[in-house]
Structure formats: C-alpha cells, structure tokens
Automatic annotation (TrEMBL):
Source organism superkingdom: Bacteria
EC number(s) stated in the UniProt entry for this protein: 3.2.2.-
Keyword list, A-Z: DNA damage, DNA repair, Hydrolase
Protein's name according to its UniProt entry: Putative 3-methyladenine DNA glycosylase
GO biological process, one term: base-excision repair
A Pfam entry, by short name: Pur_DNA_glyco
Gene Ontology MF term list: alkylbase DNA N-glycosylase activity; DNA binding
EC class (word): hydrolase
Similarity comment: family membership: Belongs to the DNA glycosylase MPG family.
Database matches in PANTHER family: DNA-3-METHYLADENINE GLYCOSYLASE (PTHR10429:SF0)
Length: 229
DNA sequence: ACCACGATCGTCT
DNA sequence: GACGATCGTGGTA
C-alpha cells in the first residue's frame, strides 16, 4: 500500500478533531474515508473518491460568500462535523461536510463515492433505478450519490461523528474492507471545481480533489489536473 | 410580491 | 454538445 489516507485509527468514527480544520485541508483528507448511510432498507457503506472545498467568506463559489448567513447556510457557520445538505435545480440534493470552527463557514462537497461491497452496490442500485449502468452513473456526481444513498434535506445538520446518526463518517481501513486498491489508484489529483463559472477568479483555483483513474469520478480533467501526493 | 438563477442530471441531436 | 426539468433561495421592491 502506497500511503494511508489519514492518521486516524482504521474502522472507527472520524473524531471531532478531524473536522477542526479548513475545508481546503479537509477536502483531500476526506478521500478514501468511509461514508456510512443507515436507511430503512439497510446500511450502505461507501468510499469517498471525489471532493471539493468551499471555504470561507472570500470564496465567490461558496453559498456563504461575503458572510451570507441565512436559514440555508446556517449549518455552514456551525462547528465542523455536521452535514450541510441543500436542494439544487429544484430536483437534486448535494451533501457537504462542514469543517472549521464556529462562525467560520467552511464545507466540503462530496462529489463521488464508490460502494465498498457488492451488497452496498445492490442497495445503491435499488435507489438509483435503471439509470445506473456504468460506475459513474451510479454515484459519480453530487446529485447522483445523494439519490444512491437516499439522502435529502431531512438529514441536514446530522452529526457525522456520532455513532447514532443515520449518516456518518468512519476512518478508512476497516480490516474487512481494504480502503484503497494496491495498484496506484490511490493517487490524488487536484483540479478546478465543477460548474462554478459565476465564481470569477475562484472558478479556476484547484480545489477539487479526486483519485486518479477511479471509475466513479464524475469529471476527468486531463488538461488541468495535477498530482498533489 | 416578484423574479432570476443554480456546487445537476438525463435525454436528445 | 445542447437543452429542459423544477423549485427553493436570496435579492430587490
């Protein structure tokens, strides 16, 4: 194995301290970590393979740009560790991990996940219906992964570091579930974020992170992506 | 009250 | 590659 994605003990919940950093630091660290979703139908465990940082009041791409503190963005201003979930285009949901201290709006958009086991994949396919053909179609994209995990606004504000939550984060490397492939596909690339042309100069900063050659990644940016590890 | 728009996706050409 | 779906949100009046 080339490198461990985190310094935290494998298999347990990510501790509160994991979230006490900027979104820009947390975004690459979230790659490889395990997202756990408890639903009526069962538990889904998946590996995060693509993230984007939305950090601070100066980021023109962020909902909290300029310190905009409203009913929707309130969760972003809370302490790190909560889920920020919003509706986009009237029909899809997006999942974010809030980071940083109280009153500093930082969040990491989860853009793609991959199921850890065939059982996890079966349940995700059930939620996605007939649309999921290739891996990317199953959960490669923020709206798609929320559909695949049955995530909507009713989970906004859920604490990801609590074992009681229906949505939580565990450290990579559960013994029964090897976190990364052993073939070099845990190489992390950085590239500009997706679909934020309105963010002006912030539209080009390389704040998207994803695993090279991972089939679940939503958009491959061959021209502008570069290695960070 | 009104209105323009979006951290997307699926379909069609 | 282009386009429409669909509605909550935030800015403006």
């Amino acid at each position: 194995m080339k490198s461990m994605p985190s310094n935290f003990s494998a298999g347990g919940l990510l501790p509160l301290s994991f979230y006490a950093v900027s979104a820009l630091k947390a975004a690459p660290r979230l790659l490889g970590q395990t997202l756990v979703r408890e639903t009526e139908e069962g538990e889904i465990r998946c590996r995060i393979v693509e993230t984007e940082s939305y950090g601070g009041v100066e980021d023109k791409g962020s909902h909290a740009y300029g310190g905009r503190r409203t009913a929707r963005t309130e969760i972003m201003f809370g302490e790190g560790g909560a889920a920020y979930i919003y509706l986009i285009y009237g029909m899809y949901h997006c999942l974010n991990v809030v980071t940083g201290p109280q009153d500093d709006p930082q969040a990491v958009l989860i853009r793609a996940v991959e199921p850890l086991t065939p059982g996890d994949e079966d349940l995700m396919r059930a939620y996605r219906g007939s649309l999921a053909r290739r891996p990317m179609d199953l959960s490669g994209g923020p709206g798609k992964l929320c559909r695949a995990l049955n995530i909507d606004k009713s989970l906004n504000g859920v604490l990801l570091h609590s074992g009681d939550s229906p949505l939580r984060l565990e450290a990579a490397g559960t013994p029964a579930e090897p976190p990364a492939r052993d073939d070099g596909s845990d190489i992390i690339l950085a590239a500009p974020r997706i679909n934020i042309a309105y963010a002006a100069e912030y539209a080009e900063v390389p704040w998207r992170f994803y695993y090279q050659d991972n089939p679940y990644v939503s958009v491959v940016d061959k021209n502008r992506a570069f290695l960070i590890n």
